[in-house]
Amino acid sequence: LKGPDFFDIENYKQITFTSNRFERAKIFGHYELYGELTMKGISKSIKMEVEFGGVVKDPWGNDKAGFSVNGSLNRKDWGLVWNTALETGGVVVGEEVKINCEIELLKAT
After folding, report:
1. Are 26 and 8 in contact (CB under 8 A)?
2. What are the pLDDT digits (tens) for 7-34?
3. Angle, vertex CA 38, rays to CA 32 and CA 40, nearest 5
4. Measured distance CA(55)–CA(48) in Å, rounded
């Protein structure tokens, strides 16, 4: 995955996401996160679904908030086009990439 057929880390050291909009969705506790994802020097707009999991106090008295962030993208849109056919039909790598993140935020004191 580090090589030129995939992420080409010699030439592209970082993958970045910069959000530019965060909106409440129709379902309570759900949001839509919009931004620019940059991979291999290619920037494209994407939308991610965010679910607020709530706020809890940990055993040390710290307030923490939890979020789930999910989305998908087509890897070919970022120049990730390598593939090979299987003997039995089909290909080794699918085009859809699913993004799933579990995020915990700690309230600063």
Report:
1. no
2. 999 999 999 999 999 999 999 999 999 9
3. 150
4. 21
Which pTM value belongs to this model? Answer: 0.82
Q: How many helices (H) and strands (E) does the chain have?
A: 0, 5
Provide the 10 A C-beta neighbour count for residue 48. Answer: 20
Cα dihedral: 20, 70, 40, 80 (round 10): -140
User: Token pair 């003997």 is at which residue?
Assistant: 87
| CB burial of residue 89 (10 Å; 0-12, 13-18, 19+) | exposed
With tokens 């962030």, the residue in question is 69
Q: Residue 76: which of 92, 94, 55 has the closest Cα?
A: 94
